[in-house]
Amino acid sequence: TDLAHIRNFSIVAHIDHGKSTLADRLIQETKTVADRDMKEQLLDSMDIERERGITIKAQTVRLEYEADNGEQYVLNLIDTPGHVDFAYEVSRSMRAVEGSLLVVDSTQGVEAQTLANVYQAIDADHEIVPVLNKIDLPASDCERVAEQIEDVIGIDASGAIQVSAKTGVGIHEVLEAIVTHLPAPTGTLDAPLKAMLVDSWYDPYLGVVVLVRIMDGKLRKGDRIRMMQTGAIYPVDRVGVFRPGMMPVDELGPGEIGFITASIKQVRDTKVGDTITTEKKGCEAPLPGFHPSVPVVFCGLFPVDSNEFEDLRDAIEKLALNDASFSHEMETSAALGFGFRCGFLGLLHLEVIRDRLEREYDIDLITTAPSVVYQIHMKDGTLRELHNPADMPDPSHIETIEEPRIKATILVPDDYLGDVLKLCQDRRGIQLDLTYAGSRAMVVYDLPLNEVVFDFYDRLKSVTKGYASFDYQLTGYRADNLVKMQILVNEEPVDALSIMVHRDRAETRGRAMVEKLKDLIPRHMFKIPIQAAIGGKVIARETLSALRKDVTAKCYGGDATRKKKLLEKQKAGKKKMRQFGKVDIPQEAFISALKMD
Ligand code: GDP
Ligand code: MG
C-alpha cells in the first residue's frame, strides 16, 4: 500500500471507558470479521486480560476501509498495554503509530489513566482525535466532558466525536476522522530496512512472533535480519498481518505494521524497542530511546506443598517464555524451603503472574512480602542492590540506603479529598500539587514506592468508595532512614515475613503485624510468642495463648454434621499451612499480615 493510504493509530482511554468495545465496532464496521464470527472483545485474548479489562501484550489489527471520498485505506490499530506497569511498552507502541483516538466515557470524564495515556500520545507527537463514548446512557454529558478535556489536557475538543460503542452510533464518523485527521506515515521504500520491534510473544506453534513497524525499506520472507541492540541474526520465516487472525503477506513496506517469525527461541532475545535491520547493508543508526525494561518489584513465590516445587519451576519457565520482563531465580528460605525470587514491572504484573500460576497451573503459592529494589551504599564505597530483605547486609557496614520514589497522580471527587490526603500523608508522601479538574481534585504526590506496592491501591479504592483513579511513574532513588524488621514466631525468625520499613514507622507496622498474626495463626497446644524486632531489639510483642481443649469442644451440644464440617475445614486448612519450627502458619498470613488498616 502506498503511504498516503495508510493510517496507524492507537486508542487511549482509562479502564472501562470503552476502548475494547470501540475496537470491536471498528473491526465490525470495516467488515474485517464476518458478523457471524464476531465475538466480544476480540483483541483482549487472554482470559485474565479480559477479566481484569487490561491488555498486557500489544495487539494489533489491520482494517481495510473505503472512505467517503471513494479511496481505499489500510488502517492499523495497535491496542497498547493499558497499565502503568507496562509504561515503557506503551511508549514504544505509541512510537509505532502517528495518531490516537482519545476515548473518554461521557458519563464519567477524564480519569488518571486517561491523563497518563494521553500524555504518552502527546510525547509521541500524535495527532489526537477526542471521542466521547457511551452517549446512549442518560448520564452522558458531552459538553461538560469536552470542556474538561480542554481544561485538563489542553487539547481542542470542539470537534470531539460523540459515539456509542455499544449501539454503533458515530462509528462511521470515527473512521472518517481517522482518514481525514490523522497523518499518513512517512518512510522511504528504497532505504535500508529500519523497523521497530514493538512487541513479541511466544506462540506454541510458531515460536516467537514479533510485532514490527516498518520505518524505512521492506521486509520479506527469507531476508536475514539483525537485531541492532542484541546483535542477533535470524532468517525470516514468515511475514504477515493481523486480520485479526494471522494472514501471510509477501512483504511489509514503510509505514506498515505486521508480524514476522524467524525461529527465535525465546522472547528474551527480542527486546521491545530494538531496531530491526538487514544483516547486510543495514541502516546506520538504530531508532532512539531504547532501554530494556527492568523489574522493580520483587517477591518470593513458594509452593504451599513442597512436593510441587518442580511443577512450579515448569510453570514459571513456561510463563517466562512469554514475558521477558518477568525475572526469576531459585531461592531457598529456612522456613519455606525451595522457591523462586521473582521480579516484576509492578504490582499488577506480579498479580497477573501469581494468578496465572494458581489458576492455569493449579499451584497453591505462598507469596512473600513484595519488596522494591533498594540501593545500598556500603561504607567501603561499593553499591549493592537489595532485592530481598533477607539479604540485608550488616547495618554497621552500611552508609546509606536509598529507596525508589514515585510521582503519583490521583483524581478524586472533592468529598473524598481529605481521606486521600491522609492516606498519602500516612504513607510518607510529599504533596507536590493540588488542582481542580471540574468537580474533581487532582492531587500529585511524591511517594516511596515501598509504601505503595503493598495495599495502597486497595486502600485508595476503599476510602474513596471506588471513585478515585490512580496512576504513577518512577522518578528516582532517595536516601531515607530505612531498617529491616524481622518477625519472630515462637522465638524463630520467619524470613518470609521480613520487611524493609522506615524507622519512624517501624513500631506502628510491627505492632500491626504481630496483632494480625495473632489472629491468623491458629492456637497450638503451647503458648506462642509473636514478636517484631529490629536488629536484636524487640519492638512489638503479642502472645498467642495455648489451646486447652479440642477445637470441636466449642460446638454446642452434639451436632455431628457441624462437627464433621469443622474437622473437614481444618483438614483443608491444614493443606494450606506451612510449619515453622513447631508452629503451623496458614498461607494467607503472609499477605494479610502486611495489610495496614
Ligand atoms: P475498556 O476497559 O476501555 O476496554 O472498556 P470496555 O470496552 O471493556 O467497556 C467497559 C464497559 O463499558 C463494558 O461493560 C462495555 O459493554 C461498556 N460500554 C462500552 N461502550 C459503551 C457504550 O457506548 N455504551 C454503553 N452503555 N456501554 C458501553
Ligand atoms: Mg479493554
UniProtKB/TrEMBL annotation:
SMART domains, sorted: EFG_C
A Pfam family: GTP_EFTU
Reaction equation(s) it catalyzes: GTP + H2O = GDP + phosphate + H(+)
InterPro entries according to UniProt: EF-4 (IPR006297), EFG_III/V (IPR035647), EFG_V-like (IPR000640), EFTu-like_2 (IPR004161), G_TR_CS (IPR031157), LepA_C_sf (IPR038363), LepA_CTD (IPR013842), LepA_IV (IPR035654)
Membrane topology: Peripheral membrane protein
Residues of the Tr-type G domain: 4-186
Protein EC: 3.6.5.n1
Residues involved in GTP binding: 16-21, 133-136
CDD domains: EF4_II (cd03699), EF4_III (cd16260), LepA (cd01890), lepA_C (cd03709)
Coiled coil residues, start to end: none
Localization per record: Cell membrane
A molecular function GO annotation: translation elongation factor activity
Enzyme class, first EC level, given as a word: hydrolase
Keyword annotations of the record: Cell membrane, Elongation factor, GTP-binding, Hydrolase, Membrane, Nucleotide-binding, Protein biosynthesis
Family: Belongs to the TRAFAC class translation factor GTPase superfamily. Classic translation factor GTPase family. LepA subfamily.
Functional note: Required for accurate and efficient protein synthesis under certain stress conditions. May act as a fidelity factor of the translation reaction, by catalyzing a one-codon backward translocation of tRNAs on improperly translocated ribosomes. Back-translocation proceeds from a post-translocation (POST) complex to a pre-translocation (PRE) complex, thus giving elongation factor G a second chance to translocate the tRNAs correctly. Binds to ribosomes in a GTP-dependent manner.
Protein known as: Elongation factor 4
Lineage: Bacteria, Pseudomonadati, Pseudomonadota, Alphaproteobacteria, Rhodobacterales
